[in-house]
Every structure is written in structure tokens, then in C-alpha cells.
Amino acid sequence: MFLKKIRFILIITLFYQTPLFSKSASLNDFNAQNLSEYFSGIVAFENKDNAEALEFFNSSRILIENHDPYLKRYLYSLVLENKINKAINLVKSNKERENTNFFDAYLLLVLDNLKKGDFKKAYDQLNELTDIVNDKDRFNSAILESLRQYIYVFKEKVILNDKKSFGKLSIISETFQRCYLGDFATDAFFSELINDKEGNYIRYIFFYLVYLTENNRINDVKNFTNNLDYLNTTLLISQAKSWVENGNYEKLTKFFSCKNPNDIIGEFLFLVSNLYSSQDNFEKSNFYLNLSNFFNPKFIFNLSLVAENQYLNKEYNKAKRTLKNFRKDNDFYYWYRIKKETQIIEKEKNKEESLNYIISQFDKINKPNSKILFDVANFYKNSKKYDEAIEYYTKLINFLDDNSVMKSDLLYRRGGSYERSGDYEKADKDLLDALNINSDDAYILNYLAYSWLERDYKIDEAIDMLEKAYKLENNDPYIIDSIGWAYYLVNDYLKAEKFIKRAVELMPEDPIVNDHYGDILWMLDRKIQARYFWSNVLKMETTETEMIENINKKMIDGLQNS
Predict the structure, then answer these.
(1) Burial class (CB in 10 A: 0-12, 13-18, 19+), 275
(2) Domain positions in the chain
(3) Could you give the CA distance from residue 406 to residue 232 in angstroms, rounded to a whole number?
């Protein structure tokens, strides 16, 4: 009994101290159980356990009705658990109590009517939403303005003249509006996005192909996809190219249509999700991602982002359930599923089992495309199975034109595999051939030069290559480490220290960089500091056994012959 009293007092204290407390509610309205569930729900929400948060929120109806910020958390948890209709109904039921006067609540009401096709009501509610948006909140302002333009087009069948601009976001919005209307300028708008050199708008190739297909411009679809390279494009575009090559044009319009307002809004909400993700606001990102899937559940490919988020959050069982949406009839996304399942197996079990799994699945594919071969080659390389990696890289290289940029990348990867397996002659040939195709690739320059440094081979040429690489990529920590180590090898310790110190600042948890810095400090007669950095290497999880043995010797004896 005493413990229960103490618990109750603590909860009451927290209740009064928290900004969630509403003076409109009487203390008599709540009991210890209410308050316990109240705070437990908040704690679970803050810990990203939305399923658990919902259990507490659902049990605390009286608190939902009396505490505005609590309702907001509840709404978010509902949307994050894909209970969007319930979230909408909750806003509707609380509207009269005026505790839904915040952006996300109004937005759900707008989206509800928009999804139902009641564009007039959605537009009227949008005007209410305008009153609570702060002009300084650029994201919400952009969302509001974009929705205003979309709803106007759906309602009036013409593009709104009176509109604010939000850069590329506005261009994307107008592109889809013109696509919806079948406007003659749609091609030009898609072209501007697709050919933009500063941003990454390759995703919009897919929607352009949909637009062309819906307008029976099949030859244009074929010509466009013929110029696309599986190895040099995204998963979505690769999938579209595969459909076109197999004559499955109906697939392009099965998942998305420019004529469907819900599909367009779904894509807009996906874009918003990406914008928040780029700001590392993953809660908001997932909120809009689920709303996107709510509007266009047909577009299952967006679930790849859901699976990625679940994987990064170590929610492996959830990720596996999400991945089951990708079936064999969509070959590229099915292969994505296999790759992601492979990564999960490695996390849950070990590297060997994950390798066995991906190879067993690969063996079941009758005609693997170049992208699948590329993935398998990379997986073998990352698993230190260099002979197998070389085999698959070779198959891909033989497919490509001699001057292809992708050939340069493949030679680089195969050369790295030869180098790791100890075949330096073939490694050097591949890496030099790659540079003949792309002489300004800083990473190829760095890899070849560092390989020579490790072999005490052509040191002067290696330094020249590293200086060029550094001019091209002067903030890359690996290149900075390489050039610093090169100066160490020619006994220019002061110059070496300048570079390696910078590399350590950029990669403080990298064992090789810390080892290099220790060696340089020793040669500068700063031996206490040298042993400090060597000791750091011993504490790092990624330090390999051979390096540990070498470091232990240096900790006792220092550098020999110094």
C-alpha cells in the first residue's frame, strides 16, 4: 500500500510539472491508472515503440480528450502503425473540443476528403489549415502550397495561376499537374527534371514512362529505355526497363497513373517523406511515408524504403514481413528482397550463412541480368571470396563497350579483387586500364597509389597520383590518409603529420588511420602520444588480428630501427 501511495504521488507531481497538464481538466477526472498509462504511452512513444505506445494510449481515453499534445502523440502513433483511418476518425471526434488545432490534425482531414474525391471540401479545409501555418515553417508552407495547387487542378481542371514557388518542389508539382491534365508541355517539364545536373531526379523517369505509355507512345518508351544502363540506374528504373524489354507495358500503369489524383498525392507525400529523411527527421519521414502508402497502396515499391527503415532500426521481423510484398514477377524488387534478407541473416546469424543464402537464391534464377551479376560479384568481394568475385566481374566487363564509364568502375572493382588476392600484375593492369578510361577518378588513383605504397613500389609515381586525387577530393579521409602515409614513407614526417592528423579527425574510429598516426608521432619523437593512438587501435572492434599483434609489439618495443 505504501509503495502504491508513493507511486501515485510521483505520478501526480509529474502530471503537474509537465506542459501536457491542462487546467481545464480536474484532478478528480483522473486516477493513478489513467496517469500511469498516460506517461507510459509517452515514454513508449519517445522510445520509438509505437505498438506499445498505442496500447497505453488506447486505454487513456479521458486523457486524449483533455490534453492536446497527448492527442498529437497518439495521432502520430496511429499513423506510424498504419492505422490511418482510426487517426482521421479520432480527429473528427475531437474537433468540437478544439484540441485538434495543430497542423497534422487539419492535414489528416484535408487528406481524408481528398482521398474520397471531395475536392471542394478538401480545398475549404485547406484554407482553415492556412490560418495555423507559420510562414517561417518552410516545410509546412511548402506542403500547404503544393496541396493547394493539386486540389485546385483536380477541382477546376486548370492550373492555378496565383501560386507561390518552392523551387524544384514547385516544378515537380506542376509536372504532375500537367501530366494529369494531359498538357502539351508535360514532356518539357519531365525533361527539365530528368536532365537536372544538380539534383537527383532520376525517379521521375518512371513517371515519364507511365505518361508516355498512357498516351500510347510505345516507341518513345522503347527508345528511352534503350538508352538506360542497368548498372548505372536505380532499382525502380531498372524494373521499368525490364518490363519494357519483356513487353509488359501494362505494368507501368498498373502501379501508378497520372490520371489518378490519389496516385499523384501518394507520390507527393513520398517526396515529403524524403525531404524529412534528408533532414534526419525520421519520425516525420515515416509519418508521411505511411500516408503515401495509404493513398496509393498499389505502388508497393515504396515499401523498399519502409523495409530499409525497419532494417536500420533493427526491426528485422518487421522488415522480413515487409519484404514479402516483393514477389518473383517483379524481378528487380524480388532480388532486392533477397539482398535485404541476406543482410538480415548476416546480422542475426553470421556471414557464412548469409553468403550461402544469397548464392542458393541466385542459382534459382534462369537468366540473371547484369545488375544481379554485379550484386553477386560485390557480395563475393565483400566476403573476401576474390576468385568468385573476379569471375563475375569478368562476365560483366565482357558485356560492355570499351569506353563505357561503367567498364572503368568494373575494372576498378576487379583490380581491387586481384590486389586483395595477391595477383599484383593483373591488379595493376586493371587499375591502369580503368584510369585510361577515366583519368580523373580520385578513388581509382587512390587505390592504385596506396597499393604501390604498401608494396614499396613506384613511390614517386604514387605520390604524384595521390596529389592529383587530393586535388579532386580534398575532403575524403581515405585519400588524406593515403597521401599522409606516402609522405611518411619518404621521411617527410612533418608533412605526413599534417595530413594524417586531419584523417584522424575525419575518421576517429578507423584503426588503420590511428595506427598510421601513431607511427608518425613516434618518428617525430612524440612517443607518449604515439602509444596513446596505438592503444586506441587495440580498443576498436574493427581491428583485425594481425594488426593487433603488430600493435602489441609496437607498444612494447616502439618502432624498430627508428
Answers:
(1) middle
(2) 1-101
(3) 7
The full 3-state SS of 54-116, as one line of letters, equals: HHHHHCCHHHHHHCHHHHHHHHHHHHHCCCHHHHHHHHHHHHHHCCCCCHHHHHHHHHHHHHH
315: left (phi over 0), alpha (psi -120 to 50) or beta: beta
Q: What mean pLDDT is predicted for residues 248-275?
A: 94
Q: Does residue 425 register a pLDDT over 50?
A: yes
Residues 6+ apart with CB under 8 A from 273: 284, 285, 286, 287, 288, 289, 292, 305
Rounded Cα distance between 520 and 428, Å, is 28
- The amino acid at residue 150 is Y
pLDDT exceeding 70 applies to what percent of the chain? 85
pLDDT at 1: 43
CB atoms within 10 A of CB 498: 15
Helix (H) or strand (E) holding 478: helix 477-489
* Per-residue model confidence (pLDDT) at position 341: 95
SS3 246: coil
Residue 56: pLDDT band (50, 70, 90) is low
pTM of the predicted structure, to 2 decimals: 0.77
Q: Is 203 left (phi over 0), alpha (psi -120 to 50) or beta?
A: alpha
**259: which residues sit within 8 A by CB, 6+ positions away?**
180, 214
Q: What is the mean pLDDT of the chain?
A: 85
C-alpha cell at 560: 624498430
Helices (H) and strands (E) in the chain, counts: 32, 0
Nearest-angstrom CA–CA distance, 147 and 169: 12
Can you read off the three cell numbers belonging to residue 216? 500510347
As given in the structure block, the three cell numbers for residue 129 are: 489549415
Name which of 70-79, 231-240, 337-346 the model is least confident about.
Answer: 70-79
Nearest-5° angle of CA 337, CA 341, CA 342? 115
Q: Give the span between the Cα atoms of 542 and 387, in whole angstroms.
A: 24
As a whole number of Å, the end-to-end CA separation of the chain is 73
**Alpha-helical segments (H) within 367-441:** 370-382, 386-399, 405-421, 424-437
Window from 37-46, 307-316, 505-514 with minimum mean pLDDT: 37-46
* Burial of 521 per CB tally in 10 Å (0-12, 13-18, 19+): buried
Contact 168, 186 (CB under 8 A): no
Other beta carbons within 10 Å of 555: 15
pLDDT at 485 over 60: yes
Can you tell me the distance from the alpha carbon of 439 to that of 449, in angstroms, rounded to the nearest whole number? Answer: 13
Dist CA 71 CA 61 (whole Å) = 10
Where do runs of H (alpha helix) occur along 227-350?
235-245, 249-254, 261-278, 282-295, 303-312, 316-323, 331-348
- Listed range (307-316, 355-364, 426-435, 485-494) with the worst mean pLDDT: 307-316
Residue 87: name the closest of 124, 116, 112, 62 by CA: 112
Q: List CB contacts of 493: < 8 A, sequence separation 6 or more.
A: 487, 520, 523, 524
| DSSP code of residue 230 | G
| Dihedral angle of Cα 399, 405, 411, 412, to the nearest 10 degrees | -150
Q: Which residue has the cell 581491387?
A: 416
